[in-house]
């Protein structure tokens, strides 16, 4: 009986999915998801794996779904408690810029966007994030078209930040400068739409429009 009490509790499908996600994080992509090494990591047998999953592809799908939940759904749920959309936007940028610098999962998945399973997960995540950003900008008073445009602008900036954070992190501001950097991005995203005919709306100097 004492020996039975010392045994590890039965693993769940979520345990396997989290281990697979950790392997993607540490190994740089889907190639790191292999049943036997994960079984060793978890102190389990391959029989435990096949109890929960029909094959490796099913485990990959579960790991990607777990990433979706952690990196998108859970973040949006935490922000829902804040009533002010401008504050939610700031907190969203603060949280995601930090996550982009610390977690290599998303850059690894973006590098494998041609993989059908990764492509499907990225498609769902991108649309969910853009829809959420569009809702925020709509709450801030922008028209539907302008809200969508600014959501694309914001998300494109996030992707660039995430890539730089892993490829050339030294070019990104740190410490107090990082806050100034974030403030500048938010001011740009929240600036009023120029009225037609104003100098700001019509001046193309320095934009490359003459090319």
Question: What does this 3D model show about the protein?
Answer:
The structure is a single chain. This protein is mainly α and 211 residues long. Helix content is 72%, strand content 0%. The protein has eleven helices and no strands. The chain has helices at residues 2-6, 13-27, 35-42, 46-52, 56-79, 85-102, 105-111, 116-139, 144-167, 176-190, 199-202. Residues 1-8 and 199-211 have low confidence and may be disordered.
* CATH architecture assignment name of the domain at 63-191: Orthogonal Bundle
Mean pLDDT over the full residue set: 86
Q: Which spans have pLDDT < 50 for at least 5 consecutive residues?
A: 1-8, 199-211
Which bin fits the share of residues in helices? over 70%
End-to-end separation in angstroms reads 80 Å
What class do helices, strands and sheet pairing give? mainly alpha
How many strands? 0
Report the top-level CATH class of the domain at 63-191: Mainly Alpha
* Order of H and E elements: HHHHHHHHHHH
Oligomerization status of the protein chains: single chain
| DSSP strand content | under 5%
Q: Radius of gyration in whole Å, from Cα? A: 22 Å
Largest sheet: none
Overall shape: it is elongated
- CATH structural fold name of the domain at 63-191: Tetracycline Repressor, domain 2
Specify the number of helices: 11
């Amino acid at each position: 009986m004492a020996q039975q009490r010392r045994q590890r509790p039965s693993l769940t499908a979520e345990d396997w999915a989290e281990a697979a996600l950790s392997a993607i994080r540490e190994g740089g992509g889907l190639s790191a998801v292999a049943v036997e090494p994960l079984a060793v990591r978890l102190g389990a047998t391959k029989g435990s794996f096949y109890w929960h999953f029909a094959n490796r592809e099913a485990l990959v799908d579960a790991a990607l779904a777990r990433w979706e939940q952690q990196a998108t759904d859970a973040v949006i749920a935490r922000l829902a408690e804040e009533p002010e959309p401008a504050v939610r936007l700031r907190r969203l940028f603060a949280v995601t810029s930090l996550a982009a610098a610390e977690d290599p999962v998303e850059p690894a998945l973006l590098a494998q966007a041609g993989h059908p399973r990764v492509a499907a997960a990225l498609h769902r995540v991108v649309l969910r994030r853009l829809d959420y950003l569009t809702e925020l900008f709509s709450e801030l008073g922008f028209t539907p078209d302008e809200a969508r445009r600014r959501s694309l602008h914001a998300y494109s900036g996030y992707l660039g930040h995430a890539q730089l954070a892993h490829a050339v992190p030294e070019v990104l501001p740190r410490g107090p400068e990082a806050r100034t950097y974030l403030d500048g991005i938010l001011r740009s995203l929240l600036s009023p739409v120029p009225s037609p005919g104003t100098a700001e709306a019509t001046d193309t100097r320095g934009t490359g429009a003459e090319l």
